[in-house]
């Protein structure tokens, strides 16, 4: 690659921060709020013009389950955000815990208020451009680009909530990306909203979800009239009056670490949204005959890119055995949800699950060590790029667990900022867990270090 030497190597610096969080998605919002709540001077850097990531700019139409089918397990700040949004959506049952619709504009304001009330300083429309790292594995500064030009931002501790582990990877952390054998990435989805939907017809008509084998999506696919529609993936929710949100279809070979790749995918996704509208208007005219494309996501729905290599790598065995850890910072019960290759998703029934879903009351722990890149000293990672194998990433990548991980990362960062060397690996785990529990986190008592609830892997569907 050709290079260009900049004429000036000096940029203005802000060096008065204890904690800098990069990425204002669910994990970044709770990380920043928690760090500031602990008294840390906290800066949150976000590339877009709003907080919330996939639930707002990405237009994902519903939360993944907040419960283990018995009780809400993503608590603390996660539950605060969840309940605040439900309270503003009159058509949602106040006791609903799973697959609850999201109205993105309301959620944007909830996230704004969350960080503002905690005392976080937010920088919108600000991109991470470079990471300056010392020989000892310590990040020394971040170089950002915004309307203020290039600036250096310096803190004691950094939290990477970019979703792609940009801070950690650019700082030199070890990581894996996609399938370890083929390099394949899960397909992306460009979410969209249709407006002017007939509510009665939609709510009382055929179930559109692809799990319904008589869904109209199969009639659309069999017709051959809309070849751009790739497969039967079509999650949908009534997010507001006369408005249905769609998490539908797949876009393959999209790499969110490549700006050219994601730019092309966004243009393809906007075309695809219009095709879905036309197909639904023809095959479900009572519901969608007068509908229109109200909005498309300003963010691409990316399911995976990088996964850091941390002090611990969460394994399939940990998931199957419902494992608990002495240093766990939250629990997770979401199923292993890996979206397949184009061939796998276009086969009848889509990609087949190979690990059975949890039963009521079942979950596994996520240890703090999955948030600590093993070769970096003052960086934490929260969100979909934590240290885990690919199969487990298919479970821990969703918004509820990202909210819970973010709060833990924020408290840990504030604790590390008080240490003489700001080493995130040296954070006192009992103190971290105590603060999480005091703030309402779901952390059941553990019978011993790295306790494991015994399970027969064969009974739980490992094949």
Radius of gyration: 22 Å
Find the count of extended strands (DSSP E, 2+ residues): 15
Estimate the mean pLDDT confidence. Answer: 95
Structural class: alpha/beta
Mind summarizing the main beta sheet?
7 strands, mixed
Give the SSE string: EHEHHEEEEHEEHHEEHHEEHEHEEHHH
- Residue ranges: pLDDT <50 for 5 or more in a row? 452-463
Question: Outline, from the CA principal axes?
Answer: globular
Helix content: 25-40%
Beta-strand portion reads: 15-25%
Report how far the terminal alpha carbons are from each other.
44 Å
Task: Figure out the total of helices.
Answer: 13
Please, could you describe this protein's structure?
InterPro entries: FAD/NAD-bd_sf, HdrA-like. Keywords: 4Fe-4S, Iron, Iron-sulfur, Metal-binding, Oxidoreductase. This is Tat (Twin-arginine translocation) pathway signal sequence. Pfam families: FAD_oxidored. 28% of the residues lie in helices and 18% in strands. By secondary structure, the protein is of the alpha/beta class. Strands 1, 2, 3, 4, 5, 6 and 15 form a seven-stranded mixed sheet that branches. A hairpin with a 2-residue loop joins strand 5 (139-146) and strand 6.
List the helices and strands and how they pair.
Blueprint: E1 13-22, H1 26-37, E2 42-45, H2 77-86, H3 104-118, E3 121-123, E4 127-133, E5 139-146, E6 149-160, H4 166-170, E7 175-177, E8 192-195, H5 199-204, H6 216-223, E9 234-240, E10 243-248, H7 259-283, H8 285-288, E11 292-296, E12 306-308, H9 316-320, E13 328-332, H10 342-346, E14 364-367, E15 379-381, H11 390-396, H12 399-417, H13 429-438
Parallel strand pairs: 1-2, 1-6, 2-3, 6-15
Antiparallel strand pairs: 4-5, 5-6, 7-12, 8-10, 8-11, 9-10, 13-14
Helix pairs in contact: 1-3, 1-12, 12-13
């Amino acid at each position: 690659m050709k290079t260009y030497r900049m004429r000036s190597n000096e940029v203005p610096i802000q060096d008065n921060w204890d904690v800098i969080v990069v990425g204002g998605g669910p994990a970044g919002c709770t990380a920043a709020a928690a760090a500031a709540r602990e008294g840390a001077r906290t800066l949150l850097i976000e590339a877009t013009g709003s907080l919330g990531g996939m639930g707002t700019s990405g237009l994902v139409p519903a939360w993944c389950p907040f419960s283990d089918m018995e009780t809400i397990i993503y608590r603390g700040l996660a539950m605060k955000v969840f309940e605040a949004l439900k309270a503003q959506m009159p058509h949602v049952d106040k006791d609903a815990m799973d697959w609850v619709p999201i109205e993105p504009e309301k959620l944007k304001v909830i996230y704004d208020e969350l960080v503002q009330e905690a005392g976080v300083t937010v920088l919108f429309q600000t991109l991470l451009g470079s990471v300056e790292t010392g020989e000892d594995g310590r990040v020394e500064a971040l170089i950002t680009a915004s309307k203020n030009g290039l600036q250096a931002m310096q803190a004691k501790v950094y939290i990477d909530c970019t979703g792609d582990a940009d801070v950690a990877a650019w700082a030199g952390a070890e990581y894996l990306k996609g399938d370890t054998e083929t390099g394949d990435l899960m397909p992306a989805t460009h979410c969209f909203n249709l407006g002017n939907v007939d509510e009665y017809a939609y709510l009382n008509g055929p179930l559109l979800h692809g799990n319904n084998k008589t869904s109209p999506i199969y009639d659309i696919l069999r017709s051959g009239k809309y070849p751009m529609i790739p497969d039967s993936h079509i999650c949908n929710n009534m997010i507001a009056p006369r408005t249905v949100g769609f998490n539908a279809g797949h876009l393959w070979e999209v790499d969110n670490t490549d700006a050219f790749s994601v730019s092309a995918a966004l243009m393809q996704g906007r075309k695809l949204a219009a095709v879905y509208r036309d197909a639904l208007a023809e095959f479900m005219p009572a519901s969608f005959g007068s509908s229109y494309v109200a909005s498309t996501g300003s963010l691409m729905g990316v399911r995976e890119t990088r996964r850091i290599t941390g002090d611990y790598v969460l394994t399939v065995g940990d998931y199957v055995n419902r494992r608990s850890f002495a240093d766990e910072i939250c629990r997770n019960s979401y199923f292993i949800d890996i979206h397949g290759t184009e061939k796998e998703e276009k086969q009848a029934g889509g990609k087949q699950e190979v690990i059975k879903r949890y039963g009521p009351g079942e979950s596994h722990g996520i240890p703090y060590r999955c948030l600590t890149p093993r070769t970096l000293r003052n960086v934490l990672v929260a969100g979909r790029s934590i240290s885990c194998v690919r199969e487990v990433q298919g479970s821990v990548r969703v918004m509820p667990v990202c909210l819970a991980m973010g709060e833990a990362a924020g408290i840990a960062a504030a604790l590390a900022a008080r240490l003489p060397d700001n080493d995130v690996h040296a954070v006192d785990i009992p103190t971290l867990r105590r603060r999480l529990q005091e703030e309402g986190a779901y952390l059941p008592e553990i019978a011993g270090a790295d306790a494991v609830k015994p399970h027969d892997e064969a009974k739980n569907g490992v094949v």
